[in-house]
Design brief:
alpha/beta, 2,3-Dihydroxybiphenyl 1,2-Dioxygenase, domain 1, Glyas_Bleomycin-R_OHBP_Dase, about 130 residues
């Protein structure tokens, strides 16, 4: 059905947001990066477009809520291991991100997350099985 996903996130300071995510370990595609937006590579055919707020407003007539005060959704990414989950959260914290909670271990699924500099919530999960029916 779909070939790729692009999650678009408005950010207050594009340069600071890019530096934050580079510190976490993500790369940016120079073909989709300029002073208005930055195309962050999350995996094969998975992208987050960090858009300067003024530019992001050209796509919608709606207001942007402050993600530090309101949640309208969040990004959830799968990881290869529990260790990868913990390592990414640790890098985000070291780069200035906020870690709002403790890791969650549901047996078949382990998760933890962080908030980026703008307050967007990023959840990271490792699935080691399926829940029992």
């Amino acid at each position: 059905m779909h070939q790729q996903i692009y999650v678009n996130l408005p950010v207050k300071d594009l340069a600071a947001s890019r530096a934050f995510f580079e510190a976490v370990g993500y790369r940016f595609n120079p073909q989709f990066t300029n002073d208005k937006g930055a195309g962050m590579e999350l995996g094969d055919n998975l992208y987050a477009m960090l858009l300067a707020q003024d530019f992001a407003r050209t796509f919608t007539g709606k207001e942007f809520p402050d993600p530090k005060r309101a949640t309208t959704g969040w990004v959830c990414l799968s990881c290869d291991s529990r260790e990868q989950v913990d390592a990414l959260v640790a890098k985000a914290r070291a780069a200035g991100g906020h870690v709002p909670g403790e890791p969650q271990d549901h047996g078949f699924m382990y998760g933890h997350g962080f908030e980026d500099l703008d307050g967007h919530h990023w959840e990271l999960v490792h699935m080691s099985g399926m829940p029992q029916a």
